[in-house]
Amino acid sequence: MSEDSPPRYLRLLDNHPTMVKLNKLAELADELGITILFSSHTTVVYDNEFPNPIEMYDADHGSEYPVSDFPPTMEFVLRYENPEYIKLKEEERIKFEEERVQREKAKQEEIKRKAAEDQRRRELETTRIEMAELARLKEKYGDSS
Fold it and tell me: Cα dihedral angle (57, 59, 62, 65), rounded to 10 degrees?
């Protein structure tokens, strides 16, 4: 690109009517305490007066199509996660974790029990071998006791 060719993009000046309108819209959003986040997968509305993020979807297509323009050109629905559902899922997660810990403890106890059982078997086998050797020696040399 040569130095005398015009730039591809130009910046709108602060006093341009479109820039003035967008600044007013941003000021109104700040005043209302609203932030809207657009992404390819979801549109999320944050309201300073509401504790949960609110998702914005096309009313005709359910949660498949997030609203991708503002102001929306279609009917839209707003939804947020039910706190009772979140609480239930957290309780289920805690219960599952407690059960996992109990299963792990039971598994460790079973490993210890088997190890102790194996140790007792080895000790009994050692005693049996020693007793057999003692009996053999007594038979060979006679009982002197």
Answer: -50
